[in-house]
Batch of 2 targets.
Target 1
Amino acid sequence: MSVDQMSLFTALLALVALGVAVAAGVLLCSEGGRRRLDAMRTDALRLAFSVAAVSTAASLWFSEVGGFVPCEFCWYQRIARYPLVVVLGVAVWRGDPDPRWRVLPMSVTGLGLSAYHYQLQLYPDQGSSCDVAAPCTQQWVDEFGFVSIPFMAFCGFAAVTVLVLAAGRPVRDGVVANREDVRP
């Protein structure tokens, strides 16, 4: 697969992830939507794991196969993203009833870092602390005129965050259960 093909493929996946995040976010805003999401709790966690795994694989592909040199903010986003694969994978495997407090600190931090990085690319004149050899303002990918690697990272972090929120607390007999209530 060429770099252009991979850029287009991952840009499309990022837009799908953004669509999933928006749709799940809209459902979270209403009682009826939350009831629908309750029925898809396990699927939401599996999808969040898939988003984290695919975005991690894409990140590694761009640096190791595509030859893109990660900048300082790219590394910070990687620090927030890579552990999500393990944390969400274990949560799915063990049927963790409430992984929010293990996932959200990393996904929300990554969301903020990727948003800041994306605006650095949009407004490069503001300067940054990034290395001259790997500037944070360099745009390795530019699909559809607005999709760059930090934008794709933002979409992935947004999808993981909203999907984990959608998985929410388990409900038993119409009552939101505590962690202790759902342990075997």
Target 2
Amino acid sequence: MKISLGPILYYWEREAIFKFYEEIAATAVDIVYLGETVCSRRHNLRHDDWLSVAEKLASAGKEVVLSSQALLESESDLKILRKLADNDQFSVEANDMGAVHLLTGRLPFVIGPHINVYNSPALSLLAETGAKRWVMPVEMSRGMLHKMQLEKPANMETEVFAFGRLPLAFSARCFTARHHNLPKDDCQFRCLDYANGLTLNTREGQPFLVLNGIQTQSASVYNLINELVEMNEMGVNIVRISPQAWHTTKIIEQFWQSLNNPDTAQKCMQQLAKWMPDKGCDGYWHGKAGLEQSTGITAQ
């Protein structure tokens, strides 16, 4: 199996993003997804900046995929999407059906995790439009994935979101701006203050969700490093790590070690717990409530 790095889901400073990808170029990650997928107001990197990062990563031997925004709300969002679709150098990850429409008949593309594909006829239809890879919806269980793997189109690659806070939902409203009593159109870019998102606690004080602008994530960190052997047996091609503000290169190293020496999985699991911003979870994979954790290992 290969390791991929998903797009940065948070709003980081421009120089921090460049430095992050300089470090990623030296890691064992095989595939890197680039671009702003959450909020169109995040402009620290423009389209040409992302292409520049993409070219550097490609020269370092990485497969680069440009990711499209999940929730399009304006004509300017559509212009950016058209630029992605018109590029003839890098594959594109489609995160809504409008992107699929624009990418049909062009370079083979990737069906992102924000397009819900839960049955093989839907996957076959997307394959006919030119999709070469699909990312399993984060709520899908291993049982459903096993059935999909048996019925999926030939040559369709399967990627599983294997580490990171779960991207659960998008809204036209910005919850981070609302938290600061600001209108969305004058948010003062408060997301820059939360490199790993803004944790939302329950009334009992337990971390529950993370506010990331218009995106809602799980507070717990999805971690499937213990499931890599089973994924390999099911024919999963790629496991995805979602970037976090700290220790991402160390997390990639642990996944690489576990892939190449499955006997180290439990030790790697314990290492990852030291670097996660909150406790782990793997409930969806096992067909249970998403926040459940089967191993009992928590963040330190």
